[in-house]
Amino acid sequence: MPPQYPQPLPRSPYNPVWNLVAIVILLWGVQMVNVGLFDGRLILNGIYPRQLDELQGILWAPFLHGNFGHLLANTFPIIILGGLVMLGKAEDFWVVTGLSALASGLGTWLIGAPNSIHIGASGVVFGYFGYLLLRGYFDRSAFAVTSSMLVIIFYGSFLWGVLPNQPGVSWEGHLFGFIGGGFSAWLLSKSAR
Question: What is the pTM of this model?
């Protein structure tokens, strides 16, 4: 009887791109439920700066959008920039997403305008932007530097979004999301070394 060798395990059908697809589906699902069942009132669960009893808004704000146009404006950058983040390691995607959302929310809660409410996934979008922009500096690999240069060429105008130049836009969320993404680039490149 010939010797039996262990059979290789079948390849997993899991593809990290499904993480990105799931996020987009979740965002659109929340918006449909918000409009269809709650008449848009879920946005009241956003971030209220410096109100201790409203700290949970930091968790909910990235999933809430004022209207479908607001959500659409965040969807394409999430897909494109989030996809570029995912080209690295799939685990890095979740670290960047989590740190960007947390930094964006906390920063907005700390310095946001009083008597305002902040919602939207743009803090995470700016986190992806900050991560991709600064990853080239921290990693110094050819791939990271090339992706940083492409991001600055195609999305460089995003830098204006971290300034208080548009009424009704949470520049605080953008700024701190960007900082969270930059911190992620530093943290992940340092741990890789």
Answer: 0.89
Q: Which residues pair with 47 in a beta bridge?
A: 118
Where do the domains of the chain lie?
Answer: 17-192
The mean predicted confidence, pLDDT, of the chain is 91
Report in angstroms the alpha-carbon separations of 19 from 65, 79, 90, 123, 188. Answer: 20, 11, 9, 18, 19
CATH of domain 17-192: 1.20.1540.10
Q: What backbone torsions phi and psi does residue 68 show, to the nearest 5 degrees? A: -65, -30
Query: Which residue is listed with tokens 């439920």?
Result: 33
| Letter string b/e over residues 16-39, b meaning 16 or more CB atoms within 10 A of that residue's CB | eeeebeebbeebeebbeebeeeee
Do 176 and 106 contact (CB within 8 A), yes or no? yes
What does the pLDDT look like over 98-152, one tens digit per residue? 999 999 999 999 999 999 999 999 999 999 999 999 999 998 888 888 889 999 9
Three-class DSSP category at 82: helix
